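lol ok so funny story. i was supposed to be doing the assay writeup but got distracted and ended up predicting the structure for this chain instead. priorities right. anyway since i did it might as well share w the group, maybe its usefull for someone
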Amino acid sequence: MSHPRIAFIGAGNMATSLIGGLLAQGVPATHIRASDPGAEQRAKVAHEYGIELFESNAEAVINADVVVLATKPQVLKGVCQTLAPSLQSSQLIVSIAAGITCASLSAWLGDVALVRCMPNTPALLRQGVSGLYANARVNSMQRQLAEQLLSAVGLALWLEEEQQIDAVTAVSGSGPAYFFLLIEAMTAAGEKLGLPRDTAAQLTLHTALGAARMATESDVEAAELRRRVTSPNGTTEAAIKTFQAGGFEALVQQALDAAARRSAELAEQLGQ
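and the output, tada:
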């Protein structure tokens, strides 16, 4: 099915990123619908993307092959309970709402084909990465539909176990903020070393961009790329040894462990 009919419940930033990505892939605007409670947001999205917008969630999902749950997690329970009578057994439900488990969604929606996703904010630039988990009701065609949907904004990776979503949250869901923190710290350090702040910021940003491209486009792992840049007794080695003496790797592990634990805690709270 090259052009599925897709309905978005919620038309915020992540939903519109997916809509834009789908349109760029050639999905006709007539095959995409969305609902949103805000009249101003509906008008904005309709004007920008040329799709049909509804105030009613039930109207939006009529004849849809895929229904994307893109509301805030805090309101999703009520949205799902109201929407459930309007869903068809043949429809695939894709949730991009953070922290809501398949068990909770099934309790609110019934026995549906469900894919739970964890995208990240670079999806807004179509440079995102998403972890996807499918429940037992999802067939092979529906898996392809979910992958097509999330691939519109970046890389889509399937997970074997739902609990791995917490690890995805820790690594990539929250991950952009870790790199932003490093950019902040390097910029401040460069300024203290005597560089103008703008110069330090530009050097840091473009170094981050270049390093990321080298890592993604290389056929070797990041550890090998690091070794290639680290000359014995050179400046890079001096910095790396300082990072490691401060327990850098252990600190990263502790930080990601904390993020994963919090993800699990939020899932339990939001699913009640």
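Residues 166 and 260 are 5 Å apart (CA to CA). The chain is about 55% helix and 15% strand.
back to the writeup now i swear
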